[in-house]
Amino acid sequence: MRVLVIGGVGFIGSHIAEHFSSRAQVRVLDNLRSGFHENLAGLDVDFIEWSITDRDVVRKAVQGVDYIFHLAAMVSVLESIESRITLVRNRGSRMQTNPTPGTIEIAIVRG
What we know:
Helix 2 packs parallel to helix 5. The chain has a single domain, classed as Rossmann fold (3-Layer(aba) Sandwich), CATH 3.40.50.720. The chain is built from five helices and four strands. The protein has a four-stranded parallel β-sheet with strand order 3-2-1-4, with helices on both faces. The chain is of the alpha/beta class.
């Protein structure tokens, strides 16, 4: 069994990675924005430090996995609202403001 934990260095994600590390091959995708790589200390996981806003990286991360746990999120509601407004002004791209639909789409297409 192969498991991908997106947002896997945060509190919940790292516990999911820990739970499965002795039962499956675990891959973690996280940009370390609000979690800590130390949360994975001692675990046998494949760690990818990158953002889910990059669809190519997400496509590679989902390759060969059986289960995906998507826990990536901004910690602060206020920050997520302010960040969304800033990103829209700067880039005009919805993908940059909410990468979750793109991540789910890639997972579904992957099958």
